[in-house]
Amino acid sequence: MAINLTKNRDAILDAWKDVVDGKTSTDWALFGYEGQSNDLEFVAKGDGGLEELQTELNSGTIQYAFARVLDPKTTLPKCVLINWQGEGAPFVRKGTCANHFRDVERLLKGAHITINARNDEEVDPDVIMDKVSKSTCSTYSFTERIGEVDRQTAPVGTVYKRVIPKNEINVEERDKFWQKEELEEKQRQVEEKRKREEMKRLDKEKLEKEAELAAQERESPEQPARRIESSNRKEAEELIKLRTTDARAIFEQNTNAGQLLSSKKSS
């Protein structure tokens, strides 16, 4: 479904203008969707720079951010448009909103660079400023750049459509972004399937081992009796051995006594 930019258009443009014109301290604005609808709305704005903006991005949602920074090379203001696809956002929702970005880009005009991001590392202030610095080809004023973008987005005719290299590059980057997302999603599904199969295998081996032990116990019910019989046999042998030893000792004692008595009589 198409994105709805009409419902909250005034609030969205007011926040965007605060960032663009530089007359206020506001240097970033954040936009998102109303619930699970396709209605774009203004979310927040601030004057704490990219560091503050980074903390406002929600990893579970789709959002768009527009920020103003100073070019390290020219010290002139530049605008950055961030297409935020949070890592925790539903995959289907990401695919739907991917088609919305071109409309958002046309509404929030004046961006010098566009960044597709999905985690905090990709919106790190140092990373963004490095891209801003690399995008500088010549020294020009901010107002001239805004006018140039306005002229580029104006319709040329009813049939002719002007090719804007900047937009074509964004489309290519977007396609690469979603190809990477799809590949990682497939890899995650394969890994989850492997883990589930491994757990099933371990559970099966455990059940088979328990069944084998139970079967062995059922097949040999006489084993406890055999252990008792063996124990009784050993006790009997020990008792017989003890009695034999005692009888021998008594016999030897009597024999010695008889010999002693005979010796006395003969003397």
TrEMBL record:
Residues covered by region (Disordered): 184-234
GO terms under biological process: neuron projection morphogenesis; positive regulation of axon extension; postsynaptic actin cytoskeleton organization; regulation of actin filament polymerization
SUPFAM superfamilies found in the cross-reference section: Actin depolymerizing proteins
One Pfam family, short name: Cofilin_ADF
Alphabetized SMART domains for the sequence: ADF
CDD domains named in the record: ADF_drebrin_like
Extent of the signal sequence: none
Annotated GO CC locations: actin filament; cortical actin cytoskeleton; dendrite; lamellipodium; postsynaptic density; postsynaptic membrane; site of polarized growth
Single annotated GO MF: actin filament binding
Domain ADF-H: 4-133
Protein name in the entry: Drebrin-like protein
